[in-house]
Design a protein that fits this description.
Elements (H helix, E strand, L loop, with lengths): L13 H14 L5 E2 L11 H12 L12 H15 L8 E4 L2 H12 L5 E6 L3 H10 L2 E6 L10 H6 L5 E7 L11 H11 L6 E5 L25 E6 L12 E4 L2 H14 L5 H12 L3 H21 L15 E2 L10 H12 L1 E2 L1 E2 L11 E4 L4 H17 L1
Helix pairs in contact: 2-9, 3-9, 4-5, 10-12
Length: about 400
C-alpha cells in the first residue's frame, strides 16, 4: 500500500525507543536506572489531581470549546501577566493536548517545499522531523558548548535567507540545559526588524526550571515581534503532568483562527477534566513547584560533579531544564554506541547526542529527573564501565 512521500520523512523521538528497551530489560530482571526520558519523577500535586476528580464528579464529561475552556485561557493570560508583566488576550490562547501539537501546527503552517525553517541543533528531535515532513528545508542553528549551549544571535541571523519562513527557539533548552542570555535575545529581536516576513516559534516549556539566579526571558516581552510570535508552553514539566497531555500556545491575531480550525479538524478539544486540573495548577498553591525545583537543583549539582569525575568525560553546568549534556569525546566512544552499551551492559539508560541533531555527536544526554540515589548509582556504573575501556 502506497502512502504519500511525506510520511517516509517522519522521524521520531528516540527517548521513547530507549524507554521501551529499558522497560523490556527491566521485565527480564535487569536493574535499570532510567536517565533517558525527560519526565519528572514526582507525582502530580494532590490538589491538581483532586481538581480533575471534582470536575468529573461535577459532570464535566463532554466536549469543550476547541480553543479550551474560557476560565483556563483567562488563567493562562493572568499567569503570563503575573510572571512576565505582559498583556495576553485570552482570545489568543489555545489549549492543546501537549506541547508537540504547537510545534506540529506552527511547522505545518509555514513549512512547504522550497521554504526554510531554522531550528536548534542539538535540539528537540521533533522540530526537524516535522520540518522534513512538510517538505521544507531544515536549517540547523548551532548550539555550542563553548557558549554554554546558548544560541548566538549573530550566527542565527546570518542563516536567514529569502526562503526562511520560521525560526524555532528553545530556552531553557532540551537537550543541553542551556539558557540564552537576554543580551542575545535582544540582539536577535533587533536583527529580526530586517526580516519582517519571518515568523518565530518560541518553545518555553521549561521556563520555570532555572538555576543560579537565571531569569527567563520570554519572547512575549518584545512587542515588536508579537504580531509574528507563536509561544509554546504547558504543564507537563513544571507541574509533573506529562501523562495528562496538556499544553497551551499563544498565537498572533493573523493566524490564531488557522490554529483553531486545525484544532477542530484534528482533535476537536482537549480532555475536559484535565483542563480543570490545569486551571487549579495555575491558580492554586505553587509550593510543589518550588519544592521540585529545589530538588532538581540539588540533583543538577550532583550529576555535574559526578560526571566531571569520570574518565574522558566533561560536563558544563546546565542553567535550566533537567538535563545534563556531557562531552564524552575523550572516552573514545561514538555517542550512540556508548548510550547503547551503557543500557545493555550496565542498565543505565541515556540518550545519544546525535538523536538531537548532527552537532550532538560527542555528547550524551542524561535526565536528572530521577532520585539522587539513582543518579549516584548510575554514574558509578558508568565509571566502572569506562574504566574497563
Amino acid at each position: 500500500m502506497k502512502t504519500i512521500a511525506g510520511f517516509d520523512r517522519i522521524g521520531e523521538e528516540n527517548a521513547f525507543a530507549v524507554l521501551a528497551r529499558a522497560g523490556a530489560l527491566a521485565a527480564q530482571g535487569m536493574d535499570v536506572i532510567n536517565l533517558g526520558i525527560g519526565q519528572p519523577d514526582f507525582r502530580t500535586p494532590d490538589h491538581i489531581v483532586e481538581a480533575a476528580i471534582k470536575a468529573l464528579r461535577d459532570g464535566h464529561h463532554g466536549y469543550t470549546p476547541a480553543t479550551g475552556i474560557p476560565p483556563l485561557r483567562e488563567a493562562v493570560s493572568a499567569d503570563l501577566h503575573r510572571r512576565f508583566d505582559v498583556e495576553v488576550n485570552p482570545d489568543n490562547v489555545l489549549i492543546v493536548p501537549g506541547g508537540k501539537i504547537t510545534m506540529f501546527a506552527a511547522i505545518l503552517m509555514f513549512g512547504e517545499p522550497g521554504a526554510e525553517i531554522l531550528y536548534p541543533d542539538p535540539g528537540f528531535p521533533i522540530y526537524r522531523s516535522m520540518i522534513e515532513f512538510t517538505g521544507a528545508n531544515p536549517v540547523p542553528v548551532p548550539i555550542r558548548e563553548d557558549r554554554g549551549f546558548a544560541f548566538s544571535a549573530e550566527e542565527l541571523l546570518s542563516l536567514i535567507t529569502p526562503k526562511t519562513r520560521l525560526i524555532i527557539l528553545n530556552s531553557p533548552a532540551n537537550p543541553c540545559g542551556g539558557v540564552t542570555p537576554k543580551s542575545e535575545v535582544d540582539a536577535l529581536v533587533a536583527g529580526l526588524a530586517n526580516h519582517p516576513e519571518v515568523a518565530v516559534m518560541s518553545d518555553e516549556i521549561y521556563d520555570q526550571m532555572l538555576y543560579d539566579g537565571e531569569e527567563h526571558v520570554s519572547l512575549l516581552s518584545y512587542p515588536e515581534i508579537r504580531d509574528r510570535l507563536i509561544l509554546l508552553n504547558g504543564w507537563s514539566k513544571t507541574y509533573a503532568m506529562t501523562g495528562w497531555r496538556l499544553g497551551y500556545s499563544v498565537w498572533p491575531d493573523g493566524i490564531y483562527d488557522k490554529a483553531r480550525k486545525l484544532a477542530v479538524n484534528a482533535w476537536s478539544c482537549v480532555n475536559a477534566p484535565a483542563q480543570y486540573a490545569a486551571l487549579e495548577a495555575l491558580t492554586g498553591p505553587q509550593d510543589a513547584v518550588a519544592e521540585m525545583l529545589r530538588e532538581f537543583d540539588a540533583r543538577r549539582k550532583l550529576v555535574v560533579e559526578l560526571l566531571n569525575g569520570l574518565p574522558g568525560v566533561s560536563c558544563v553546568v546546565p542553567k535550566g531544564a533537567f538535563y545534563a549534556f556531557p562531552n564524552i569525546s575523550g572516552t573514545g566512544y561514538r555517542a550512540k554506541a556508548l548510550a547503547s552499551d551503557l543500557l545493555e551492559q550496565t542498565g543505565v539508560a541515556t540518550i545519544g547526542g546525535p538523536d538531537f541533531g548532527t552537532l550532538g555527536e560527542g555528547y550524551i544526554r542524561l535526565s536528572y529527573a530521577n532520585s539522587r540515589e539513582n543518579i549516584a548509582r548510575a554514574i558509578e556504573r558508568m565509571r566502572t564501565f569506562l574504566s574497563k575501556g
